[in-house]
Amino acid sequence: MTITKKRILLISLLSFAIASGATWLFLQKESGAQIIEFDIKRDGKDIMAIFDRDWNWLIPGDRNSFSPELMMTYRAPQKNPLYAGRLKIKVMRDGDKLIGFVAWYMKDAHDGFLNFVDVNPEYRGKGYAAQLVQYAMDAMIKDGAKKLMMVTWPHNTKARSIYERLGWQLVGSDSQVHYEYTP
Questions:
Q1: Contact indicator for 137, 148 with CB cutoff of 8 Å
Q2: Which pLDDT tens digit goes with each residue over 72-94?
Q3: What phi and psi values does residue 146 have, to the nearest 5 degrees?
Q4: How far is Cα 183 from Cα 166, in angstroms, rounded to an integer?
């Protein structure tokens, strides 16, 4: 093979590799994880599976103290009907797979509360929880929150490190730890 043919072959292979890489990046971006509005028909069953699996991480009581079904149906952070429609729920999906979800509400005009964040185990450690939390923080601030609040378990060290990395401050503890964020 002559030097000219080798150069043409090398340039062709290099061009093919660059085009393939660019196509792969484009498709990854198009099909990657997206945070979208919760839809009970599409997401309800998957979120119930999260509550069933992680109940003790998400809820400080038993099934009589909280109903995920009512939360999703009425978009309420608690059973009190006065809260119906106040809970915002977003899901992170990659195509038809639920990565995780986040839920929050405004307690009043200036105080937002991060109610839930959970990521399915096969997606943990990839930064998705931080993206979900940041999304909720940005939404509450956009809605006028001057202070954000949340509680978690003292032994939930991985989640706590995410919150602290995002700027949340530990403000108290009892059976749970209390965090606040001031924009």
A1: yes
A2: 999 999 888 889 999 999 999 99
A3: -105, -15
A4: 11
